[in-house]
Design a protein that fits this description.
The complex is a heterotetramer, with 1 copy of chain A (360 residues), 2 copies of chain B (374 residues) and 1 copy of chain D (612 residues). Chain A is of the alpha/beta class. Chain A is built from 12 helices and 14 strands. By secondary structure, chain D is mainly α. Chain D is 72% helix and 0% strand. Chain D is globular, with a radius of gyration of 25 Å. Classes of the chains: A alpha/beta (360), B alpha+beta (374), D mainly alpha (612). Chains in contact: A-D, B-C, B-D, C-D. The structure holds adenosine-5'-triphosphate (2 copies) and magnesium ion (2 copies). Chain D: Pfam families: BPD_transp_1.
Chain lengths: 360, 374, 374, 612
Amino acid sequence: ASGAIEPSGGPVELAACDAVEVGAVTRCENFYDDYWPAISEQMDALYETAKQADGGRLVIWDWYELSPDVIAEFNEVYPDLKIETRGLTYNLSSAIISAKATGSRNTDVISGSLVSAATMTDEGYWADVDWTAFGVPKEFFTIGAPEMLPDSVNGSLMQVNTDKVAEAPATLDGLLDPQYEGKVSVASYNANVFAGYGMDKGEEAMTGLIGDLKSSGNLQVLEDQDSPLSSGDVPIALGQTLFNPNPSLSVSPYEDAGVFAQFSGVNVDAKNPAGGMLWSLWNAYNPDWLELRMTDERFSTTQVPFPGLPTSLFDSATGLMQTNSSALLTGLAGGAITETVDTRDDWIAMINAADAALNG
Amino acid sequence: MTHESGGGRLVVDGLEKHYELDGAEVPVVKGVTFTIEPGTFTSLLGPSGCGKTTTLRCVAGLENSNGGEISLDGNVLSTGTRHVSPDKRDIGMVFQNYAIWPHMTVFANAVFPLQVAAGKLPKKEARKRAMEALELVQLDAYAHRPATALSGGQQQRLALARALAHRPKLLLLDEPLSNLDAKLRDTMRNELRSLQQRLGITALYVTHDQSEALSMSDRVAVMNQGRIVQEAAPRDLYYQPADRFVADFVGRVNMIPAIVRGRDGDGDALVEAFGARLVTPCPDSFGTGADVTVTFRPESVRWHEAAPDRPNLLPARVVRVEFLGEIVEYEAEILSGQTVVGTIVGRGAPLNSPSLHDPVFIELAPQACRVLAA
Amino acid sequence: MTHESGGGRLVVDGLEKHYELDGAEVPVVKGVTFTIEPGTFTSLLGPSGCGKTTTLRCVAGLENSNGGEISLDGNVLSTGTRHVSPDKRDIGMVFQNYAIWPHMTVFANAVFPLQVAAGKLPKKEARKRAMEALELVQLDAYAHRPATALSGGQQQRLALARALAHRPKLLLLDEPLSNLDAKLRDTMRNELRSLQQRLGITALYVTHDQSEALSMSDRVAVMNQGRIVQEAAPRDLYYQPADRFVADFVGRVNMIPAIVRGRDGDGDALVEAFGARLVTPCPDSFGTGADVTVTFRPESVRWHEAAPDRPNLLPARVVRVEFLGEIVEYEAEILSGQTVVGTIVGRGAPLNSPSLHDPVFIELAPQACRVLAA
Amino acid sequence: MKIATIIAGAVIFLLLAIPLAVQVITAFRGPFLPFGVSTAKWSVENFVTLWSLRDDFWAVLGSTAAFVGGSTVLSLLMAFGLAWVTVRTDAPLRRVISVLVVVPFIIPPIVKAQAYLLMLSPESGVLNQLLRLLPGDLVIDPYSFVTMTFIQALTNVTFPYLMIVPILTSMDGSLEESARVSGASWAKTLRRVTLPMLWPGLLGVAVLTFILGLGSLEVPLLFGQESGKSIFALKLWNLISAGAGELPQYGLAAAWGCVFLVITTIAFVIYLRATRNAERRASISGKGFRPTVMKLGAWKIPVMLAIAVFVMLTAVLPLFALFWSAITPYPIAFSFEALVTQTQFGSFGAVLADPEFWASLGRTLVIAGGSATIACVAATVLAYGIARARRTGWTKAVDLFASSSVAIPAVIAGFAMFLTFMVINPVIPLAGTIVALIIAYSYRVSIAYRAGYSATLQIRMELEEAALVSGASPLEGFRRIVAPLLMPTVFAVWIQMFVLGTNEFTLPAFLATPESRPLSVYMYAMISPRSAQLYQPDQGAAMALIFTLLVFAIGYGLQWGVSLFAIGRAKRRNPIPGVGTAEVVPPADPVAPDTRAVAAQDLEERRQLARR
Ligand SMILES: Nc1ncnc2c1ncn2[C@@H]1O[C@H](COP(=O)(O)OP(=O)(O)OP(=O)(O)O)[C@@H](O)[C@H]1O
Ligand SMILES: Nc1ncnc2c1ncn2[C@@H]1O[C@H](COP(=O)(O)OP(=O)(O)OP(=O)(O)O)[C@@H](O)[C@H]1O
Ligand SMILES: [Mg+2]
Ligand SMILES: [Mg+2]
């Protein structure tokens, strides 16, 4: 229904992409020079529409709650939109479907990876938006679908407390080494750190590995991996996030780690579709915002901006983001396995198999 | 002090009350009828469970009767079907366990009935009357104490003041003294009675203590199993009990089963009890051969070492002698094996009492005996 | 039945007990000394709060005394510092509120002391003895009921059976009858006393009811404010009270303040009370001019319409007449404004009693008076 | 009066019946939400699925029984011991102990669990560091089933403690004394008389503690990812957290919930039986009642030592772990070196400067206060009506129903409420609002109902009847006599529910949004790495400490204020002209055992008074 939003002044004429392949992703080094001005213009128009829709209210449900700092950054550019946020860890799809079923105000923006948003995709919740008509390079849409705007990637890394462990192994198999007994942790909901291994080596090998890791006592399933990682009690964390300013922590990619592109888009049930588009574009590509994300500790997450953006952006990273993004990009460039529309269901099956092995 | 409650005339006519117990209706009060004249003091006396409290509560309106009529000064308070609610009956009530409101001061307790009354008094007037009621029971000095800081007797007095504060026509009292200890009970008994007389209020008093009923009342109604078995002035009740139940319940009594054998010249009967022959006054309704019970009070029993030449002497053996202070009580076993209780009173009592195991003669003066149906 | 508890000799010597209250030590028992001979029945009589229960609990070992010695048959149970624990004292105790264990049957209650005793009995023997104890109090037929299904009197009997089951040397009783109603109290009093005599057990009985103490005891110790003020046989206590407190507490008494004015030929004193002159026996210790109190019991007061030619006559006016059944009680106001209470007893009582407001003469027979320190 | 009773009854009915009905319906409808989804239809599919998972089911039953049963037994033992020491012995510092026991009750369980986690870390945990100082190679594995059970027991001690104290206080000491003079030693008396006497009451406490344990998610969530994953609460939580590419299995979760409801209902019936028995037994204790105090003598030292260890484990060390976490910039092991070089106190200031802290604190107070008020008012009015009504089948049914929420574990209640608000949202849009939370928290109404019921029974009828014959209408009698007399109980329960409300985590975990979230959830967001950019462990810990202090102050402050007020009221009353004031003498006897129902708070209050 909301596909109705048209680019102001007709579809944008796209420039030619100065392309570099980064693993499965195509990078346009000339993005900010040749694409961004047009996108920016479209965004101004979207802002005007969004202000009128639903009284300027913009509802954003995400897997994580947006921190007030992020909202403040957005409002600095677009002050007249009032953002209402909810973090719905592992329940986002259900909340969106429930809201539609019960008729309550739904989110304007939906987001997730191909896997995590699978239900939303299957139930047809991505509004039919042609992002290329708003100036986004068509090279960005190689992994997902046209209505899904790629905004970032994340993937599985190993975090290491270097006080306790000099260096993390480069493979998951390496974790079987007796020296890591009781030293590796994973969260119960993070079975996907093994899925890449499974996609490469087969399900049996993967479940075997998980079984071995657990039975050897090397791997522990923990709800809170961060405290023991930081204090050194469990010095290696798989798939753990990186918010911890402890200088002893470092991060490294490992072989067969999956990398997952993250998308955002507009909910078919949105009350403020223009606002949804505006948010998605701003969050994914706005250079000032991304620069801040790469440098300001307050905004560091495991997610790294979409690798399709110019190298210069990634070069500007400092601190935690620098470690994190270089590890991820190294992994991606080194052939990390990435999920695509075609392989989505295999991934889902693989993750569930890993989940069963880990938690069953 | 100007406290004129004045009394009302209470008429209870054919009162019936059932309770539901395990699905069945159990009658508890069965056609109780009595009248209390204005300003008099009537006691309901009876053993535990006979329905005294239930009757009183029906009069108060705390229970709805199932039949019969209750009226006060001609105003019908209750029929089997319509009931005036308790707050509109113009009565005062004193409960067995004081029922003093523990969260209030003495004064607040006393002034409460004046504050909630339908035709509300001005604050000042209410305050004045409450203080009057407290003065009446000599609690005015304690007005500002928390009510719980009173002793048992004081609490009972406060309950009385509270019941009188709104100058009701009828005062109901349910065993108000039974929770007090002996000395205090005596004092309160006197206080209560003189207060009632002073105010001229009509009082209905429930008790199972015969000496309380006898000493305080103008009239006593003896209840048994939901019925009134005798209603009379205290002395009549004591000396002319209507039946064995009353005789036994009101004061202590010796009872000997006997058979009427004939009459002597004075119209007194000759009865045979365990072989012995006794002379005793006897209503004409008992003919020769009738099974009767001869009753006599312990205080009218006399004992002798040797038999004097008088009628009604029973040889006996003393089996118990008990010194109770004012009274010495003894028990003597007559030939039939039954025992007779006698008391000796006064300064000389210990000297005049028999010794344990002594053979004695027990004298029952004919005029002290009373013959009742067996 | 073969139940030979037998009694022990209890010696309490200089018992002291303090309680801590708001940080301060409050003495409650202050040097109590008494001896109970084997097989006798002694009562501790005194007003509420005088320390009776505390004394008893010290004997039982439920409180640790702060001084003095307690011994039973020569075994020291307690000194101010060392205390034998209650379970090793060989005593039985009956509590005021029965303290029947509600989660057990009647039998289980009775057999408990036999099961927990140090030298454990064989099961059969314990069972036999428990049943004997229950028989003793006529509860054998109820052995398998839950203890809660007993009436008040039965519970009290069970408490007694339990206290006797292990055949202790000493039986302690703390107001065991005060929760029972009047009729039941009389019955239980007789039962208790005859049982104690039958078993020959030593008994220490705590009560604030003088008639209980007088009727049951071989000896009575009157306590006041933590001290024993008089210890004597019941009759001596009643007729020769040591002081005003005892006279007043044990039985009812009239007290008139007076001044000794001289002696007559018999050695009796002439005292002056409110202008009137009375003749009364008087200990020599009171010299002329001493302030004294003349005491006499209500039952020794006699009244006359006209003054006979006898000493000790006081003109008075009757202010109260109360019919109590067995007794008629009257109150007469003498010239001083003080009132004297008199009682009249027996069948003729109502006829022999004065009428309200009548002027009368009150006679106090000299031998009925007793002079005590003012 | 009658109308008020009916309204109160209706409120309680709505609070309890609708969520349960929604849950049962959900269990019998398709896999997702009960209404509005095209695939939903009536079926027993969820139960079939449940049956197909029966191995899993038995594992859950076994594991839950071991965990909840074990922790219940442990916490009862500890609570009984503590209550015994504070009520029935002459142990020194009893007042202090009874306050310290209450401390863990105030810390939100999720934070408490986190504190235990910090305290128990094998290397860096302060407890394990302490143990390492001792000879022997003692290290506690925080993630073992036994540790988890033990921690659950420790976190739950306060609740049974608060319930056992009045039971012990009100037991007639002469029952034990008569056993002593019958020749039974202390031990025998305890075994043969005291415990059997208290048994029904203790059974009631045990059942309530069990149900409470069944419903609490926190400890299994943090400690049980491996050893405790079959524990019911965590299982339910995982079922409604969707797997990869799937929707949460609400229907299946509801079916699970239904099965466990059957189990708790059985426990609940046991509880009702037990308390009824307890009431009957309590009724025979007569006057002359005085609590006996046991002289500890030589036992004083071991007893105090045991208590010291307990207080260390439940109050001192967890609070220290939180404090350490608050003053370090990121989680590090305690060491003196770190103490010197790493500590910073900025987190406290940051918390106090955080507007979201104040906002969620405000919401917490509103939600906890509002729900406690609703529950207490409705429950008291209904309890009064039922306790005073003639016992018929109908009143018995109402009584049973109003008591029933003690049988509903918080997880189930939270989940059922969540479903309910979703279902009614199109008509009454409450989902995610503070009102929804207030309603949800009020589901604990049965606690207040039971207390109000027994408190009403303790108020002798004569007190009301005296008001009636004094000329007061029934409503006036209730207002002026009953209400003030019930006040102490109601207030005690209110405080208890208020504190429960302030640290409630399970319910808002299902129901809250950032706009309506209470502090416990915000705090958890701060200390859980899962919450991405909100993760600030130092501030979370600081917040927990500040919050604990605050609730402690509010709870005790209110009690103190109320007792002051109660004393003051009699004194402040205007003297009546012409009447000298007689000095106030304390009553000679302790004011009857009537007042004893007023739970532990009453005791607390008297202690407050004594301290003044
Ligand atoms: N609410 C009730 N429901 C059922 N039965 C009752 C109720 N109240 C009283 N009864 C029964 O009614 C009978 C009379 O009770 P009532 O209280 O009037 O006796 P009472 O004469 O006052 O006795 P007491 O001297 O013991 O107070 C008793 O058998 C009692 O058990
Ligand atoms: N545990 C206690 N702590 C402090 N004071 C106490 C304690 N027990 C009793 N007292 C006080 O000691 C005094 C004597 O008490 P005790 O119980 O011995 O009196 P009593 O003679 O048995 O009285 P009663 O006839 O009322 O039972 C009373 O003033 C009482 O208040
Ligand atoms: Mg009665
Ligand atoms: Mg006593």
